[in-house]
Amino acid sequence: MGPRNCIGMRFALQAIKLVIVEILQSFSFVTCKETEVPLELLDKVAIAPKKPNKLKLVPRSEAPSQD
């Protein structure tokens, strides 16, 4: 997509990015008991886990501190 993109599409993309930032600022990713540590990766060109990586989203006020 070049610079002559529809201005509405650019506005929508910017709005989506802002929503993602707000979500990431409000929540922390925390490992749960199903999370595989250390993560096993596939032996292919792309770096991808062998099994799905399971994480919990916890509100930042409840997240354990990382100190």
UniProtKB/TrEMBL annotation:
The keyword Heme applies. InterPro entries: Cyt_P450 (IPR001128), Cyt_P450_sf (IPR036396), Cytochrome_P450_3A (IPR050705). Keywords: Heme, Iron, Metal-binding, Monooxygenase, Oxidoreductase. The keyword Metal-binding applies. SUPFAM superfamilies: Cytochrome P450. GO terms for molecular function: heme binding; iron ion binding; oxidoreductase activity, acting on paired donors, with incorporation or reduction of molecular oxygen; steroid hydroxylase activity. Belongs to the cytochrome P450 family. This is Uncharacterized protein. The lineage of its organism: Eukaryota, Metazoa, Chordata, Craniata, Vertebrata.
